Amino acid sequence: MKTNIINSPKVIQERKRLDKNNVFKEFVLDESYKNLGKDKTYYLYTYGCQGNESDSEKIRGLLEEMSFTITYDLSKADLILMNTCAIRKNAEDKVFGELGRLKQLKRKNPNLIIGLSGCMAQEESVINKLLTKYQNVDFIFGTHNIDSLPKILYNTMSNIERYVDVLSYEGDIVENIPIVRESNIKAWVPIMYGCDEFCTYCIVPYTRGKERSRLKENIIKEVEGLIKEGYKEITLLGQNVNAYGKDFVGFKYDFGDLLNDLSKLGIERIRFTTNNPKDFDDKQIEAIKNSSNIMPSIHLPVQSGSNKVLHKMNRKYTKEEFISLVDKIYKEIPNVSITTDIIVGFPSETEEDFKETLDLFKRCNFEGAYTFIFSKREGTPAYSYIDESITEEVQYDRLYRLNELVNEGYKRGNLRFKDKIVKVLIEGTSKNQPDTLMGYTENNKLVNIKGDSKYIGKIVNVKIVDAKTWSLDGEIIDDQN
Ligand code: SF4
């Protein structure tokens, strides 16, 4: 089958940050694509972060605007699309494993169309591997041009040829792409794309491009629409939400301003992720402190407790600066819960460095963390950092010791709500106990509650009767709606 390479990613290009203003575009679906998916079904895989989940909601919006219908049965799909993640090697291995499995499906159904998007599509080495070893992949597009999906799919289906269209430059901000949301209770609201931090272990600045912020008018319009539709909670998304607005030219408007404006719109719950301590300023802390509808749960990735390792990671703060930020947040927002991200086994990390990370975890009273073993990513500076002293055994030993502390943090963070009355947004029934409702407190604690499904989508007052490591048990005491 002929392969058309319209655009293909180049790491050298993705490293660059061209000094050019953002381009804002409005999406309009070409009429000729409207019935492309008539009587056809699609199956969508979503891997990775909330940013990818939000992109998948746009991909669904585009496919359904083209008359495709979703199926959750792989064998019934006419189109299969994998929206991938490249943050760690095991995320990629999972996708290649699944693509291998799909070869059989394609042998059974030669008309099956398979596409791939997301961060893996932005990696030069991955594209080469897909084009040489995975003939069953018919089209590939990247994180910067989701709005090109209709055209790429139209060409792939009409010409029965392979298409690769992955941009290396940072991409435009495209508004009005149709969205099909997973939930009708809480919604992802991306406020910016990309990251310019270039932490030495991280692939995101290459796969997601330059930091570019959406205009506040478009964000406010989206949130007003969600309020009208009855949404209770929004989560503002960005690789580094605290840097929102820094790329605006000719006017000043930053994340603190956005939080203040959104909190006045009447949405009941506002969350945001993810943060970078380097850009978390007093104005943002004030906005959270002064708005009862901005939730007191902050995820603040620190990655390491050693200044030497932080420097080698190119994280632009010291342990001391991080601690003083955490202390300020606790002082200004007393009831807040703070969680973090930590990488262990980073090249050059000694036992002493690791002990500093354990001490920092205790010192900051974190109520949980996502913990990872360093995974070298091709194209990042840390890919060439070699440190034979850090064996796999050392990495797993450190992860194990850290997770013991993290579990204590989760438990401690839950125990402080025992016998308290808290507000819970009931989201649905618990995965493991269908007769039990589940929801989250304002501090983002999972609560399981015996109760009637009429409470789903409602914020209710709940008495916490038990606190476990990963969740709370509660009883509804009244419905405040
Ligand atoms: S700030 Fe986060 S997304 Fe950006 S480079 Fe660092 S780790 Fe990656």
**Helical region count?**
13
CATH class descriptor name of the largest domain: Alpha Beta
Through-space gap between termini: 59 Å
CATH hierarchy: architecture of the largest domain = Alpha-Beta Horseshoe
CATH topology of the largest domain: pyruvate-formate lyase- activating enzyme
> What is the radius of gyration computed over CA atoms, rounded to a whole number of angstroms?
23 Å
What class, by secondary structure content?
alpha/beta
Shape: globular
Whole-number tally of structural domains: 3
Question: Would you mind describing this structure in some detail?
Answer:
This protein has 481 residues and is α/β, with parallel strands linked by helices. The chain folds into three domains: 3-165, Rossmann fold; 175-415, Alpha-Beta Horseshoe (pyruvate-formate lyase- activating enzyme), CATH 3.80.30; 421-479, Beta Barrel (OB fold (Dihydrolipoamide Acetyltransferase, E2P)). Helix content is 32%, strand content 23%. It is built from 13 helices and 22 strands. The protein has a seven-stranded parallel sheet, with helices on both faces. It has a five-stranded mixed β-barrel with strand order 18-19-20-22-21. Helix 8 (255-263) links the parallel strand 13 and strand 14. The longest helix has 24 residues, at 392-415. The termini are far apart. The model has no long low-confidence stretch (mean pLDDT 95). It binds iron/sulfur cluster. Iron/sulfur cluster binds at residues 195, 197-199, 202, 204-205, 239-240, 276.
